[in-house]
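ok trying again, last paste got cut off:
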Amino acid sequence: MSAVQQQLPEGRYSSPRSADARADRKLRVAAIVLGTLFAAMMVWFGWYYIAGGAKFSGEVIAFKTYDDNVKVHLEIRKDSGTSGYCTIRSQDAVGSEVGRADFRFDQKQDRIDKVVTLRTSGGRGTTAELLGCHAD
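nice, full thing came through this time. structure:
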């Protein structure tokens, strides 16, 4: 048996190989464009996360518990002139929340040390947890 090859008229039909090559090229171009857009988006998000937005953060240095309140020593670091607030909560020995409050910081300094009083109800607070600080 011999294979019979059928000859098509030249120039009338494109070869299957050229159609595959065109499809591969289109896919390659689409992948490069989408990859470039994704990389640009990741760079923008990274820049915004690191350099964008106002800086406002805090840290609990120490706390002391009493029957009806918790005294919390906070250190706030922020951009000079930025104002915002920090949220603190306290829990009792079994983990129930007994106090939560927002404390505002409008001072012009970039570093603030302050002792705030968090009132508690429903039990004696045993913790002081900084839930977060947010700039206005």
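cool. The mean pLDDT is 85. The beta strands are 56-65, 69-78, 84-91, 97-105, 111-119, 129-135.
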